[in-house]
Design goal:
Length: 210
Amino acid sequence: MRLSDPVALRGYAHPLRMALIGLLRREGPMTATRAAERLGENVPNCSFHLRQLAKYGLAERAPAGDARERPWRATAFVTSWDDASDDPQVRAATDALNTTQLAQYTRQAEEFLARRADESTRWRAVTRFSDTSLYVTADELAALTERMDALLAEYDGRIADPSSRPADARRVTLVQLALLGAPAATDGDTAPGDGGATQGDSDTAVPDGR
């Protein structure tokens, strides 16, 4: 699902709506009542936001085995949007959406860190925070992103088909942030925080995500 309309972009830029879509993608069709239970929200609130998601094409009614139930499902496994638009309205809307998404990532990381001590050493060793500074052109960064996307796509089948997952598999979110350094930076200069931890240096963890 690719969003391009500013109204739809702003409509999706809501923490509960993002959480609802993530829940439907992870666990499949469910009613607003069940979604409210899973997210710790009230039912009327979830019902309202599910209807709004349907308005923007992100959710729809799913077939129900029981006439009393009215489940919802996500219309797609992935939502994307154009961050390179020159349209001021689209740029403002995507900025709002990206800000909401970043807040979601931060919340998920904080929740994981709060329970990190309960995880096994095996999982703590392979989930972490890290950052690396690169000097690349825009075309090289685009090519690198495509290569990473292709690698991750090898596991897409396990999203739709739970039976294809190994017995010990867990849901993991890999967050990709490509952040430009200040234009005045020169070779040899490193902005505070850049390259602070390379892969393998950090013993902290990234949480199970959306």
